[in-house]
């Protein structure tokens, strides 16, 4: 079980430790253990929940179980766990919440109260059907409910939202690329895994020492390894804060190889200046076919004859209808970040919502609520637009730079002028 849900176990451990440190998992009844409260996370095959009597200060593998189903008719809870650990008495309540609210994935129960939210009328016995039903009507209108004499229940589309309802952190809303670039490297660590393939595609197609224009350069995930490989790089990004983060990473010997430009990549006015142009994980910001074609024309005109345009993107298929939520825990120095990602697709426009809860050794918490949108293109649509812009040769690859396969989640492309 722990190996199967390695990432989820790490998240629940971190959340539990944080809540315990803020005295939200302390005992409610006099003389009881300092382990009260529970956490729940919907997963494939059921939901994870902290086990009965578990140590919330330092959860072990035995302190988290998988509840595959609560059978009300047989009065059974089907549990998978370590060393016959029992599910929290809140398991029936969590099951009822998941049944009633398909969009809820995270649940937090603490032994604290919040006057901002209503309370259930009766103090039902935990584990009973009456207890499970008591807060449902309230939760249809509120993100949390005070259980009469039993603490607070908070729900959310992800565990970050549920925890934030209780902790009330400092909230920062917007788009990380534009509004809060400082934590960008921490919050988007998951996307760094594509960099080795991307850089290999550059080094095998572009001579060392060439002048490269890196579009939507951000904090330099691609710029830095290209500088280190021996390229002259012009890093272009719309956000000045991103480029400041990039320059802070570049060592003094490499500074002479770097130029930074604050500009929108939709409005390129270069004319045959670069041997290569790179665009990592951002071509889908050309929203709509007309903007994609116009953007590619600007890229084409900025390349010298024989120049290469290299990009990667999701390998979208019109059969792609569903995106599962993604929850990841990151650490960097004294900072911990709990990140929940959700994607919704409507009429080719994918809206990416990323909620993150960040805290340090001082336990001060900040919630970064990030949202941005992309336009999803098929491989065939990219190919048509590239050829319409004038590129004479277009080659596609997938992860590992293997031959293109439509079943792969990602695609890479080298287009030659």
Description:
The protein is of the alpha+beta class and 417 residues long. The strands form three sheets. An eight-stranded mixed β-sheet has the order 11-10-9-12-13-20-18-19, with helices on both faces. The protein has a seven-stranded antiparallel β-sheet with strand order 4-3-2-1-5-7-6. It has twelve helices and 20 strands. 25% of the residues lie in helices and 32% in strands.
Distance between the termini: 52 Å
- The number of helices is 12
Stretches with pLDDT under 50, minimum 5 residues: none
Helix content: 10-25%
Q: Proportion of β residues?
A: 25-35%
Number of strands: 20
Rg is 25 Å
Class per helix and strand makeup: alpha+beta
The biggest beta sheet is recorded as: 8 strands, mixed
Mean of residue pLDDT values? 91
Shape: elongated
Adjacency order of strands in the biggest sheet: 11-10-9-12-13-20-18-19
In short:
With 417 residues, the protein is an alpha+beta fold. The protein has 12 helices and 20 strands.
Keywords:
12 helices; alpha+beta; 417 residues; seven-stranded antiparallel sheet; eight-stranded mixed sheet; elongated
Set out the fold topology.
Blueprint: H1 6-21, E1 38-43, E2 46-50, E3 64-71, E4 76-80, H2 91-100, E5 106-110, H3 129-133, H4 136-139, E6 144-147, E7 151-156, H5 159-167, E8 170-174, H6 184-187, H7 195-203, E9 211-215, H8 223-229, E10 232-237, H9 240-249, H10 252-255, E11 258-262, E12 274-280, H11 289-302, E13 303-314, E14 326-332, E15 335-346, E16 349-359, E17 365-375, H12 379-389, E18 393-398, E19 402-403, E20 410-416
Parallel strand pairs: 8-17, 9-10, 9-12, 10-11, 12-13
Antiparallel strand pairs: 1-2, 1-5, 2-3, 3-4, 5-7, 6-7, 13-20, 14-15, 15-16, 16-17, 18-19, 18-20
